[in-house]
Every structure is written in C-alpha cells, then in structure tokens.
Design goal:
The complex is a heterodimer of chains A (223) and B (79). Chain A has 223 residues and is mostly helical. Chain A has nine helices and no strands. Chain A folds into two domains: 118 residues, no CATH class; 82 residues, Orthogonal Bundle (Arc Repressor Mutant, subunit A). Chain A is elongated, with a radius of gyration of 23 Å. Chain B is mainly alpha-helical and 79 residues long. Chain B has one domain. Chain B is elongated, with a radius of gyration of 15 Å. The termini of chain B are far apart. The model of chain B has no long low-confidence stretch (mean pLDDT 90). The chains are: A mainly alpha (223), B mainly alpha (79). At the A-B interface, α1, α2, α4, α6 and α9 of A face α1, α2 and α5 of B.
Chain lengths: 223, 79
C-alpha cells in the first residue's frame, strides 16, 4: 500500500501512517463533492451516537429528560462536527480517527451540560457561604473541635493570600459547588485557565496552612 | 488520619499535573492505551496526575472510555 496515501496532508509536525479506516475518514473529509458530503454525514451520525450515549451516561447530573436530553446531544454533535472538520489536518494518527473525533463530542456534551447549569442555578456565583464547607468536604460535625481551627485558618488564607480572581474561583467552585464547566461559560474563559487558577489557589492555601502548622510539609518527592 | 483528610487531599497539588488542555490533547491516546494495555497512567503520568484532581476531565475520560469500549458505543464505521 502506498504510504503517501495514508498520511495526513498538511501536517506540520510529523506525518505517520494511518490505519486504513482512519485514512479513509481523513481522505473523505479532505475531499470534495459526494465523497466529502457522505463522509461528513457518516461522521455526524457517529458523533450523534456518541453524544447520545454520553448524555444518557450523565443524565443523573441533569434535571432534564426526554426530548431536551436529545436536543442537548444534537447540539453537542453539531458543534463537535464543526470542530472535527476544522481540525482534521491536525490529526496525526496517534490514535484511531474515530477515538480522536469522539473526544470532541464528549467535550461538547460537557460544555452543554455546563450551560444547562445556569438555566437552573438558584444562587449567584459570588455568594459566599462558609457554612457549606464542612459538608463539601465531609467534615464530621461530631468532630468539629478537631477541624474548626483548620477551617478558620483556611478562611483567613482565602482572604489574605488569594488574588481577587483566585478567590472568586475558589468561592464559586468550592463553597458554592458551581461546576467548573459552568464557570467557564459564565466568565468567558476556558477549562484550562479556570483549573490553573484553582490549582494555584490550592497550592497557596496549602502553603499557608503548612506555614501556620495546620498541615505537615510533605515536599513532593517527584519534583 | 485527621478528620479533615478530604480537605487536605483537595489542597494537595501534583507538580506533574498536565492541566486540562494537555489532557484533552492526549485523551484519545490515553484511552486507547488504557484499553489496549491497562497502563495509561504509567505511560502518561501527567495526564494521570491531572485526572486525579480534575472532575470535568475525569468525566470526559470516562465518557470517551465508555464510548470506545462500551457495547453500544462502537465507533467503528457502520458502512
């Protein structure tokens, strides 16, 4: 088989041989006319099937059912299709094409679920209720004498150590239980940026609790 | 074990953590490696570290795993 037919066109980094099925998908999407249209239709069918499966798998997180769930799957599949078609030249064959494509459908379902959160949210993301924290972390009320000081120290660290943005993210996610993907939409940001902000906040808060003797200093053995 | 162990685990960060963007980039390879060899965490330690503390990415991982491995989720072309 001619290897030139099984590589991704216009791949700037490295081209590797694709498995025959992946190569067929890539050629179809890169083609024109009936072949292109037929490949796009098959891809949409695949993405919709995967999106429907993912919506069913996660339906416990949603307050909707029936046609609304299917509508969410359709929206996710449509947006995933746009993403896959736009990025097909970036596919390097390091997995099967279908695995690569389906992750876009899964991600779009997550995005749509995040959007759905705000349609049913009852409290503003800025509301700050520290009384919720023990429940969030399963702190036993019967042992409040053990963790009261730690929580108080954590609260002081949130006030004193975090930037306004870190504090906003911490409050929304940790105290209010706002899903990260919902926060992404609310702030017009992206998942990586929000996660990184919370990651840095966690690191600062832990350092503060260590400095004040509430936690032991376990220096990472891997860094 | 302290009574605030879950809080301590939440605050603990892993310097290997790959973040959401890199995890998404590698997720298809991670899932296929896991299904084929069961050692994706060893092969992609940064992704594994991230999946230990990022619920949205865990959801995506589990969703993709189910889509690829599940009985109704075959991604093979039906043509």
């Amino acid at each position: 088989m001619a290897s030139a037919d099984l590589t991704v066109p216009d791949c700037p980094v490295e081209s590797r041989a694709l498995d025959p099925e992946s190569a067929t998908w890539v050629r179809g999407l890169g083609g024109s006319g009936a072949v292109h249209d037929e490949t796009v239709a098959r891809l949409h069918e695949l993405l919709l099937r995967v999106a429907r499966g993912e919506v069913r798998r996660r339906r416990g997180q949603l307050a909707i059912a029936g046609p609304e769930l299917d509508d969410l799957a359709h929206q996710a599949a449509a947006d995933a299709l746009i993403g896959v078609v736009a990025k097909v030249t970036q596919f390097r064959g390091e997995s099967r094409f279908t695995t690569w494509a389906c992750k876009f459908a899964i991600f779009e379902v997550s995005t749509k679920i995040g959007r759905h959160f705000w349609q049913h949210a009852t409290a503003p993301m800025e509301a700050e209720d520290w009384d919720r924290l023990p429940d969030r972390f399963g702190l036993d009320p019967a042992r409040v004498a053990e963790w009261r000081d730690v929580v108080a120290a954590l609260r002081r660290a949130v006030d004193d150590e975090l930037t306004d943005h870190q504090r906003r993210i911490f409050v929304a996610i940790v105290l209010n239980g706002t899903p990260l993907d919902a926060l992404v939409l609310e702030l017009g940001s992206n998942r990586n940026a929000i996660y990184k902000t919370l990651f840095d906040a966690r690191r600062k808060l832990r350092a503060s609790l260590v400095a004040h003797g509430y936690l032991e200093d376990h220096a990472s053995r891997r860094k | 074990m302290s009574s605030w162990g879950s809080l301590e685990r939440f605050l603990k960060t892993d310097p290997l953590d790959a973040g959401c963007a890199e995890t998404f980039e590698l997720l298809d390879r991670y899932v296929e490696r896991e299904l084929a060899h069961g050692d994706a965490a060893a092969h992609y330690p940064g992704v594994a570290a991230h999946l230990s503390s990022c619920n949205p990415c865990v959801q995506d991982f589990e969703g993709l795993l189910a889509a690829i491995a599940g009985p109704a989720g075959s991604t093979r072309s039906e043509k």
